[in-house]
Design goal:
Its EC number is 2.1.1.177. By secondary structure, the chain is an alpha/beta fold. Helices cover about 40% and strands about 20% of the residues.
Length: about 160
């Protein structure tokens, strides 16, 4: 199985980039992982929030196949602790799917088309985080999930 993370807009904070690269490298020892960034949409001040979400949704959907499992990282999604998340990953690996895609939306969330296509929603916290920070937090949780599955000491129970 391959895991892909899709996000809208590049990160300009070099400290975050360094940490994301570190956890991405660590994660590569466990699974094929791809972090894909879709560039910010140009001229957004001329678009409504709904139009911006629709354009971002089209770009995200263009990166998916019908056989992919698509999970939106959404504030109203199911929340779980790290151990439960590792089980969630294991369940998907056992199901025989080829690609599991997680998506971090733009500043206004997701389009209706993305919600309709999604196979599920995950919430990282009831707190609000910047879209830049969520990337790091989520990749770290993926890494943590795989260390839990391997009974490695990174996650202390």
């Amino acid at each position: 199985m391959q895991i892909k993370l899709i996000a809208i807009g590049k990160t300009d904070n070099s400290n975050l980039i360094t940490l994301i690269e570190d956890y991405t490298k660590r994660l590569s020892f466990y699974i094929k992982f791809d972090f894909e960034i879709i560039p910010d949409i140009k001229n957004v001040k001329h678009l409504s929030e709904a139009q911006q979400k629709d354009k971002e949704g089209e770009l995200i959907l263009a990166k998916t196949q019908t056989s992919d499992i698509l999970i939106l990282l959404d504030e109203n999604g199911k929340q779980m602790d790290s151990v439960a998340f590792s089980s969630y990953l294991q369940k998907h690996m056992n199901s025989g799917i080829k690609t599991l895609i997680f998506v971090i939306g733009g500043p206004y969330g997701f389009s209706n088309a993305l919600y309709n296509r999604a196979n599920g929603k995950l919430g990282l916290s009831k707190m609000t985080f910047s879209h830049q920070m969520v990337r790091l937090f989520f990749i770290e949780q993926l890494y943590r999930g795989f260390t839990i599955l391997r009974n490695e000491p990174y996650h202390h129970r």
